[in-house]
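Figure S4 source data
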Amino acid sequence: MKVIDSWNVAGMTLLTLSESIPKGSWNKVTIDGESFKPLIPLYAGDISRVKNNSIGIRGEHDFTGKTIEFV
């Protein structure tokens, strides 16, 4: 799966993915050989507005166009 958009906010990066976040057992993501603990973004604490193709990671990065793996 690919990262189709990547933007930084408050020391974190929000990634928009080309597909839905996979269901199942995973606890980290790998992008460009780096591993990150993923964060599920909330919109003002409202989990009903969470998109199923967005994920956050700590730090400021530009991973647009990169492959992301859920491991």
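Figure S5 source data
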Amino acid sequence: MDKKQLIEEIRKTMPKLEESDPDKELKMALHIYITIGRKKAFDEKYFFGDKATTEKIEQLANRAKKNPEEFVPKRKIVCISISYLYKDILKEFGIDASVIRPDNEDKHVLPAIKLKDGRKIKADIQQDLYLIQTRSRLKNVKSVNGVFGKNILTPEHLTQILIDIGYIKNEKDYRDEKIEEVKKEIQYENAQEALTKILEDKRICEVEDKLGYIEATKYYKSVLNQIIPQYLDRKIYKVDCYREQENQEREYLLCLYAEENATIRPYIFSNKLNRFVRTDLEQLNQWQEEGLVIGVGHKRDGSKKLKKYMKKQQRAKNEGVVQE
């Protein structure tokens, strides 16, 4: 998809808005925000990369300042590239925006929309990617200004706008509400039962938009923190894995497992199915023999514990002992 095709898609899917609607411009901007957000994923190479790698990616991303259309067909982005791309597409629809750096101590940048009525809205599209792709409440669309509390974009007002443009049908349609339903049903279960319920429940796992690796990681970490924070990093662990592709690129795979009574129940995220699928230690050992790398060096995760269970299973297999 090139820039012309993206703009055409946005025009065709833009909801019909009344000229007299005081929020028409903001609704247009948020429709564009959501359309772009469903197509992009944060670059794992940047997330896991060393200093040399991240600097190289930043240099390439800086090209978006002058040639944002270059990043329309690319799925993998960083905050610089998606911010300037969003700004450029907004301009095509007559909406003014800039790219700002809120914290001088941080490299992170984000778009700020300047509405004709004087309102200024921060719209951190990169941070909201996983929320957009799971139809969750948007946490990074916020007012920058407002006189004595007037014209501030409240969560209630934002929700009504998102209903009006078709992002959700009603407030109960937010993924957050579905997560709360699941939480009430499993609050007394053990870690393995809880993880199984969460990862296999349709209200959690049936996600319409394709999740990138970082977006899947953020989404499921958020879900676990909301439902069973008492188990996270105590009985439920995350492991970053990858396979080397023929083109020397890495395909990252997210593994989650729950430990109870000296046994574990592992799941691995299927990029093809866009959800977690249950696996076992024997399968993980086989994948490792075929080149799966379990644990990304400088990131702390549950890989060390997982490898111990895998080695134990392999020894038992070699000794002819059947083990779960």
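The first strand starts at residue 41 and ends at 42. The mean pLDDT is 93.
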